[in-house]
Amino acid sequence: MTTLNTKEFLDSYKTLTNAKYPMLNANEHLVLSTILTVSMEWEKKISEVQDLLDKMTKEQNRELQILQDIKAGKK
Q1: Which of 18, 25, 42, 71 is most buried by a 10 A CB count?
Q2: What is the pTM of this model?
Q3: How many Cβ atoms from other residues are within 10 Å of residue 49's Cβ?
């Protein structure tokens, strides 16, 4: 059985959402659930879903770094 590595996605989503919207609940598990549901409906393979989660994690980390740089006055 193949499993998905979702921890990095959940952590990056929650961190980015909290940085952008500190007063809101991140709802990272709801977001992941939606991604997985849509992926199943579109009959995506586990590897395709993992690739998507990895891509989104990188994008979220990149956006978080930009926000942190702006906050620190680097940009």
Answers
A1: 18
A2: 0.84
A3: 19
